[in-house]
Every structure is written in structure tokens, then in C-alpha cells.
Amino acid sequence: MSVAKILSAVAFAAVLPLAHAADITGAGATFPYPIYAKWADAYKKQTGNGMNYQSIGSGGGIKQITAKTVDFGASDMPMKAEDLQKNGLIQFPAIMGGVVPVYKLEGVKPGDLKFTGPLLADIYMGKITKWNDPAIARLNPGVKLPADDIAVVHRSDGSGTTFLWTNYLSKTSPSFKEAVGEGTAVKWPAGVGGKGNEGVASYVQKINGAIGYVEYAYAKQNKLPYGLLQNKAGKFVAPDDATFKAAAAGADWKSVPGMGVVLTDQAGNESWPITGASFILIHQKQDKADSAREVLKFFDWSFKNGAKMADELDYVPMPDAVVKEIQAVWKGVTDTSGKAIY
């Protein structure tokens, strides 16, 4: 089934009343939405239980789970250990993928353009405003670059995709770190904002000369040309599941409190520089133990049955060894009496 059909099916399911006792609700990051939608569709067919997920951005997901209006939240920016403790939350990674630079430039095909972190930083700071700027031309000899204005597109909502993008640009450009910094929402010096990965993809599709950043599945889904990116080893690589897996290979999940590993700018010749995990947030002590148990059942099923579906959308499923670490974290989720629910 195509991604468009899956999204359509889940969107239809989302308007149905939550009649089934085992249905659960989640909200947050748009980055993992295509794979969560695909898992939810398959899970519903196999178990009869629904998972209704609102793709509202990581900032919205953190707000909703903190306010206990959903059964779980999702964020591409891991919460710090002190914030998890303060809000009584447990966090675990559910899926990994990549953020990619996309563009619309007449006559320039997918993979024709090469970018570096400092070059993208200068574009997003408004320092480079024309596609035929010498800095772009030097990196792309042989590519016919027009004198068109660059239309910068960024996110308008609180976004984990923005966190990964700005985290990477801050690591590779000291001036970007000082002027803009990193976060789910920053004060952009240039450009227009689109809501969600969907909004950014839509703007880039409509504006000739546009550049934006989206999760890879959205670039594929919308057939948007994407650029190659220079990694920490100095190699120009293309985004795909192999380069995302290369970036994730060296992750040490045990060493970071709350498993909050950030995978940008990883070492390795094949590593895609803007790789990241998407995290699930759930309350440690549960007033609604049955719903929390169903959340963990859904992700347990997804880890056991969803790897092939993740590969089809160019996400990176969590390795088996990491899933065991995640399941150990689940033992900390309890009912109001302190009894583990899973």
C-alpha cells in the first residue's frame, strides 16, 4: 500500500469515535508519523485495537502528555533527565530516520546538489540569498545554477525535526550556534514557516527556488529533490536507510540518561549527518493502567512485527539489543499502587 493510501486510511480512522476499549491515543512529532500510521493500520487489522495518533509536532506532544490528555506523547528532541523526573515521565526511542535538505530548482535533479553544514547555515541565516552564489557554485561545479532568489522554508510549529536540523547546523557552524542556536522552535533570521513536515514539503513544492528540510519519508512521498550532504568524515553521502543505519551504529543508549541520544554529525564514512531517533513519552505512575499497558503492547508488537514496514519507508528500526534495553525501562511504569503494569 502506498504511503498516501495509508495516511488516508489512518486519517479516516482518526475521525471515528473511540468506541473500542483498547484504543489508545498519542500525539506529537510529525517526523515518525508515516511509520506510526503504517504500524497502526497493521496493528488494527491483526488485533482489532486502534492507535489514534495526532501529528502535531514534538512541542505539542510534550504539552499533551504532560497535561495527560493523551496516553503517550512523541518527540524527536529527547527530554533531559531532570525534565523527565520533574514531570514524572519515562522516555524510550521508537524509530530512527533522517532529516534531509529538499529544494525546488528548475533543471536541477535529485542528488545534483551538494551541501555542507556551514553552507546550509549561511543560507538559513540569510547570508546567502542567490542560488548562483559563489559558495554554492564552488561546491557544485558543472551544475547550472540560476540567479534566482533562495526561498528559505522552515517549520512554524514546535518541531523535533527543527531540533535535529538546528542541532546539526549548530555543531557545524559556530556563527549559526551563536546567532540562532538549537531547539524545537528558534527565531529564524530568514524565510517562511510551514506547519509540520507536510507544510514544509507543500511550500517547497509550490515555490521555485525554495529550500526546506523534512523527514526523508516526506521527501520520497512528495517526490522532492534532495541534496547530498558532507558528513563528519568529509564524504558526500545520499540519504537512505543504509546511511541512517551507519549513523546509528555507534549509538550508546545506556550512557545517556533517559536514552536521549542525539545522532547528528556522527563519525563514519557512510553516516548521514542529520540522523535522529523519535522518542515516546509515557507517565511513570499510571492512573489509567489499562491504557498504559495497551501503549506498551502496541510498541512491543511494532518492534516485533514492524521492521519490514519501517525499511519500506526508509526508517531504521530499533536493533534487538536496544529493544531489550527499552523493555527494561518499561518495568518502571507502574499503577498507582506501585505495581509494574508490563
Short précis:
This is Phosphate-binding protein PstS. By secondary structure, the chain is of the alpha/beta class. The protein is built from 14 helices and 13 strands.
Which keywords apply here?
alpha/beta; single chain; 39% helix; 342 residues; ABC_phos-bd_PstS; eight-stranded mixed sheet; 2 domains; 14 helices; D-Maltodextrin-Binding Protein, domain 2; phosphate transport; Phosphate-bind_PstS; disordered N terminus
SSE topology:
Layout: H1 3-14, E1 24-28, H2 33-47, E2 51-55, H3 58-66, E3 72-75, H4 81-87, E4 89-104, E5 114-115, H5 117-124, H6 134-139, E6 151-155, H7 160-172, H8 174-179, E7 192-194, H9 196-206, E8 210-215, H10 216-221, E9 228-230, E10 236-237, H11 241-248, E11 275-283, E12 285-286, H12 289-305, H13 307-312, H14 320-330, E13 334-335
Parallel strand pairs: 1-2, 1-3, 5-9, 6-7, 6-8, 12-13
Antiparallel strand pairs: 3-11, 4-8, 4-11, 9-10
Question: Helix/strand/pairing class, anyone?
Answer: alpha/beta
Named at the architecture level, the CATH assignment of the largest domain is 3-Layer(aba) Sandwich
Query: What fold name stands as the CATH topology of the largest domain?
Result: D-Maltodextrin-Binding Protein, domain 2
Name the strands of the widest sheet in spatial order.
2-1-3-11-4-8-6-7
Per DSSP, the total helix count is 14
The number of E-state strands comes to: 13
Low-confidence stretches: 1-20
Largest sheet entry:
8 strands, mixed
Shape: elongated
* Percent in helix: 25-40%
Oligomer: single chain
Residue-averaged pLDDT: 91
Could you name the CATH homologous superfamily of the largest domain? Periplasmic binding protein-like II
Strand proportion, as a percent range, falls in 15-25%
Domain count: the total is 2
| Rg for CA atoms | 20 Å
**What pattern of helices and strands is seen along the backbone?**
HEHEHEHEEHHEHHEHEHEEHEEHHHE
